[in-house]
Amino acid sequence: MKKETFRLLIINQGSTSTKVAVYENEAVVFSTTIKHLPDEIKSFHDIWDQYEYRKKAILGEVYSHGYEISEFDAIVSRGGLFKPIVGGTYVINEAMLADARSGVYGNHVCSVGCQIAYDLGKEAGIPALTVDPPTCDEMIDEAKYSGIPQITRQSSYHALNQKAIARKLAKDLQKTYSELKVIVVHLGGGISVGAHYLGKVIDVNNALEGDGPFSPERAGSLPVTDLIKLCFSGQYSPKEMLRLMNGRGGLVAYLGTTDGLELDRRITQGDRKAQQVINAMAFQVVKEIGAAATVLKGEVEAIALTGGLANWKRLVELISERVRYIAPIMIYPGEDEMGSLAMGALRVLREEEVVQAYPDSKNDTQLEECK
Ligand SMILES: Nc1ncnc2c1ncn2[C@@H]1O[C@H](COP(=O)(O)OP(=O)(O)O)[C@@H](O)[C@H]1O
Ligand SMILES: CCCC(=O)OP(=O)(O)O
């Protein structure tokens, strides 16, 4: 007999937060966001050093709500940085984790989330899943050129939320996603600006690695020659340079914090430097939106602003004033990642959709185990 109720543990490692939720089918039993102070995050040299810290945060939530891991039908994590793959739901396996640990496809703590989900799932005998990972790749060929053959532009962005918000936007415009031409801007610890064309993200900045606007904890695109000089200045090791780009760049580098609420307070109290840096971040975001509008040949039906920073009216206004001439602006503060992870897992558990196969690997955790 087919199982009717699936209980899911959803985990989402963001650069500034850990989100934990429990779903029973479509219903949210609880959903919590644990914010991590920049000083705490700064004390880790590497994202993989955060493994125990993040796991403890997750287990603290699970146990304090009276659950054991073995009571779940699956653990679903946002993540990780795998090979370029098609969207969908994947059973996390060793090959995916080896690619994530290698750092070849970038470094983000959502990869650590996948490792935690896999380890907890293995111990408890339940599958670990992930949905629409950041390296989902739908970019058109011309978007992949960098300017030198040695470097190919990679798709690495908030794929899960970008897609979820684009679908929500389609519904709000009484259309389907596959007939929509829109720009989605995710304003989180990292910032991604995606050009969505008829159901596909045909171009998007790499939100992790030196591409697009600077963000709360990332440097974004930099003047390349100056960057090369800095790399060879003897001041920084390769690891330190990479950390400066991703983790210690952007707002935290200029202002010592990634926290929008704190910055709003500072600006209200007259902090001119904070105001200037926020103006500059908004400036870089609007330039990226302008570029995405050209990718869509100016046929932009709406611009959606989402992510934690879309809660911040001051920033939203700074962006809107420069791009509202392009298309109507729709605001979707926060994200729909937890729900999207749960729905992606439910679709495969209910056999409404097949699990995607990770290239060149065999699944070493059987989905059948949880039915
Ligand atoms: N109400 C708010 N006002 C201003 N900034 C906010 C608000 N809520 C969240 N943020 C900011 O949003 C960012 C986190 O966004 P989020 O999408 O949760 O990112 P992540 O998943 O990377 O942790 C942080 O900079 C946080 O301070
Ligand atoms: C790979 C992009 C994912 C990302 O940047 O997420 P956060 O904004 O949550 O750090």
What does this entry look like structurally?
This protein has 371 residues and is an alpha/beta fold. The chain folds into 2 domains: 7-132 and 337-370, Nucleotidyltransferase, domain 5 (2-Layer Sandwich); 159-333, ATPase, nucleotide binding domain (Nucleotidyltransferase, domain 5, 2-Layer Sandwich). It is built from 12 helices and 11 strands. The protein has helices at 38-42, 51-64, 94-102, 109-124, 159-172, 224-231, 238-245, 251-255, 260-268, 272-295, 313-323, 337-349, and strands at residues 7-13, 17-24, 27-35, 74-77, 89-91, 128-131, 181-187, 191-197, 200-204, 302-307, 329-333. The strands form 2 sheets. It has a 6-stranded mixed sheet with strand order 3-2-1-4-6-5. Strands 9-8-7-10-11 form a 5-stranded mixed sheet, sandwiched between helices. Strand 1 and strand 2 form a beta hairpin. Helix 10 crosses helix 11 (313-323). The protein is globular. The ligand CCCC(=O)OP(=O)(O)O is lined by residues 14-15, 108, 134, 156-158, 188-190, 207-208. Belongs to the acetokinase family. GO terms for molecular function: butyrate kinase activity. It is found in: Cytoplasm. Pfam families: Acetate_kinase. Keywords: ATP-binding, Cytoplasm, Kinase, Nucleotide-binding, Transferase.
Descriptive key words:
single chain; 371 residues; alpha/beta; Nucleotidyltransferase, domain 5; 2 domains; six-stranded mixed β-sheet; five-stranded mixed β-sheet; 12 helices; 11 strands; globular; binds adenosine-5'-diphosphate; binds the ligand CCCC(=O)OP(=O)(O)O
